[in-house]
Design a protein that fits this description.
single chain, 165 residues, mainly beta, four-stranded mixed sheet, 10 strands
């Protein structure tokens, strides 16, 4: 069922969008729309933030119910990155940040993804608990879905299995 929801966003004319690790935070410049995703509860690890650069040729569009995300527009780069980090860091098993550039079909940065990487001793050797998928259908909007699961589409049950408390 969940896999069907993800696949329903794709059409034969869609293009997969890739990401790349952000090595230099000074690359984050300009004004952004900040999209806060998830945080359904205190211990919800399915949480990420997306920075959509305002005024560029692409718009980041969450494929999720409106209650699952919130937008804040007109945020300068330093504040946007600080807000993103504060949002994803607020989890008891937070270990470090995973920050990636979202690349447009031509390879230019179209946005920034900020997610928490969790303590690997809590959830096993895996510290990245999210599967985030990006694609475009029209060359102007980059759609994304977020799930707590793996790239094979296997969802984690609510309350991820914890190895320790």
């Amino acid at each position: 069922m969940i896999l069907a929801v993800f696949l329903s966003g794709f059409s034969s004319g869609s293009t997969t969008i890739t990401t790349q690790r952000l090595e230099d935070p000074s690359e984050v410049s300009g004004t952004f729309t900040v999209i806060f995703y998830g945080k359904a509860g205190y211990s919800d690890p399915v949480t990420a933030v997306f920075l959509d650069r305002e005024g560029d040729e692409f718009e980041l569009v969450p494929r999720a119910p409106s209650w699952a995300f919130e937008r804040k527009t007109g945020v300068d780069a330093d504040d946007a990155l600080a807000m993103a980090k504060a949002f994803v860091k607020d989890h008891r098993d937070f270990h470090e940040f995973g920050i990636r550039k979202i690349l447009s079909p031509n390879g230019n940065p179209a946005g920034i993804e900020v997610r928490a990487l969790y303590d690997p001793t809590v959830y096993g050797v895996r510290s990245d608990l999210l599967w985030i998928q990006y694609w475009t259908e029209n060359g102007r909007q980059i759609y994304f879905t977020v799930s707590g699961g793996d790239k094979e589409g296997n969802s984690f049950p609510s309350g991820l299995p914890r190895l320790r408390d």
